[in-house]
Amino acid sequence: MNTDTPIACSLSAEELPNRLAAISAIGRDSLLSVSADGALRFRAEADTRDRLEAVIAAESECCSFLSVDLREEAGELLLTITGPGEAEALVSDLVHAFATEGQAV
């Protein structure tokens, strides 16, 4: 991670609601659980992986200071999002955007 990268999302006010809607839709459709440390577990389906990879690619464009890891573990897709200390609130917001009603965050 480049330490010169500003800790700010570059999405416009018009783009942000669409991104959050896409993230929420993935959570609603495929999220299994969220651990206390914010790791997200999804059903290991090809469509879910494709959708998550698209969000990861998009997030790397607007929030290059974030580190996002997607891997398959124990028959599930595990997504972790981390960032520098100043980005803690944004990381939390992203995790919450995936979570649907009834999912503990």
Name the CATH architecture: Roll
Indicate the multimeric state.
Answer: single chain
Structural class: alpha+beta
Mean pLDDT across all residues, rounded? 87
Strand segment count: 4
Text of the CATH class: Alpha Beta
- Looking at the structure, the CATH topology is Endonuclease I-creI
For the sheet with most strands, the description reads: 4 strands, antiparallel
Low-pLDDT regions: none
Helix content: 40-55%
For the record, the count of structural domains works out to 1
Shape: globular
Strand content: 15-25%
Description:
- The protein has 105 residues and is α+β, with helices and mostly antiparallel strands.
- The chain has one domain (15-98): Endonuclease I-creI (Roll), CATH 3.10.28.
- It is built from 3 helices and 4 strands.
- It has helices spanning 15-30, 46-62, 88-98; strands at 31-34, 40-43, 67-73, 76-82.
- It has a 4-stranded antiparallel sheet.
- Helix 1 (15-30) runs antiparallel to helix 2 (46-62).
- The protein is globular and about 35 Å long.
- The mean pLDDT is 87.
